[in-house]
Amino acid sequence: MQFLGFALNYCFNHFIACSSPSHPASAEPRPTTVPHWLLRPSRTLQRLGLLLLGLVCLWFAASLLATPNLDLKQRLAQERYGAQAAQTVAAWRSMMDEARTQPLERQLQLVNTFFNRRISYALDPSIWGQPDYWATPLEFMGRATGDCEDFAIAKYVTLLLLGVPNEQMRLIYVRARTAGALSEAHMVLGFYETPEAEPLILDNLITSVRPASSRPDLTPLFSFNSQGLWVAGQTQQVASSTARLSRWRDVLERMSREGL
Questions:
Q1: Does the predicted TM-score (pTM) go above 0.90?
Q2: Domains of the chain, residue spans
Q3: CATH entry 3.40.50.360 includes domain 70-257
């Protein structure tokens, strides 16, 4: 990063220097109506080249900052959870490689199916010894088990890595109606074509991705992503998700340390 800062500073300084006139102020102006930049194309090209170099440097910096370290994630899986966890992370990476060439709806299906079939469902007390714990994707795949929040978070992160815009996805807290007309707290992932659109639901309870209208068993309460929090039935963000949801803030920080 120090080299990048030096390169950008060099580009900026030389761009300013090239933009300054090289002839004395007292020199007679050229008696012509031809634009000045046409008379000195090499100087103009030099300026454009330096500007382009600066833009490339900025693009490269953004790429470095945005690129997740999946090799680190796979190594941590091996070190913390063993060979089986490393194989799961390798399979996850292979699934993403396949999904990148697919249309969006196929990506949603591939991600939903991967986690639903590979990871088993269990409650937090039996996994973590805590009443409510939100696992990172590495912890989730490492233990090969998790509850509804863990499934939804892993799918959300995976689709972000595939390039699905953050603003088109929300983790949705719902009341899920179960057998005997009982209901329980549940979390799913929703994909929104537009903020007002009916979401497609990715749920660990079923493998198929369905529109919300096909899931009358789910009653939404609120939704969130890394940008904000929304109350059910409203399209306007009402709060910062990381400010209101401490577990969400905590899991984002742990994901960052794991290479995401």
A1: no
A2: 2-66, 70-257
A3: no
